[in-house]
Amino acid sequence: MAKRVFLASMMSGVVLGALMLAGCSDGAGAEKRPPVSKSLQVCEQYLGEANLEGAIDSVSSGERRVSATESSVHLAGLLTREAEEWSQGDLLHNQYTVCRIDFPMGDGTAVIEATVKWSVLTLDMLREPKYAKSWKQLNDQVFIEPETGHPGMRLLVPCGVHGAPAGQQADAPLQLEVADPGLNAKQRQALLSTFARTLVEELACTNDPAVPAQLIP
Q: Among 26, 98, 138, 157, which is least packed by CB within 10 angstroms?
């Protein structure tokens, strides 16, 4: 009887050990990422998860408040509708905050913010001496303003929208900006480039503009 009890106990221990090993190997020792808010998911979708994580860590490891556009479909719909209703000489364009992260500090609030709008700057204007001083041409379609007067960086990307009036692509390009409390240039350009490439894809720009991954040398 004692032998049967011993054998049963031994078998139970073997099974339990096998289950524990299976559980460990299944996770492969990797840490599970804690759940993130819907707003943070949207921010990561547009700015890149790794890019945004590095930027956040550079600013603060403490409290943060995240807000974002309702969804990518909602944002693309708003921008598309506005482009379709655009007319020559139209100087009123809505600016959309795609992602905003506030970091409460002892002496105020530090902010990372990504915004987009249809610009009143045309491609022809950017080639004029007045604007050429601050706007640099990256390729035949994309312009960058690396210094905006405050920590941040802007891109102008012509994006033709299906159903929009003729001239919209060149005379109302997308203006995208990332503002921050003082990230380094590498971090800033990674956020902005990912932001622009993601939005260009979502809008299905008819001219298929090529936004470089590296915006500055």
A: 26
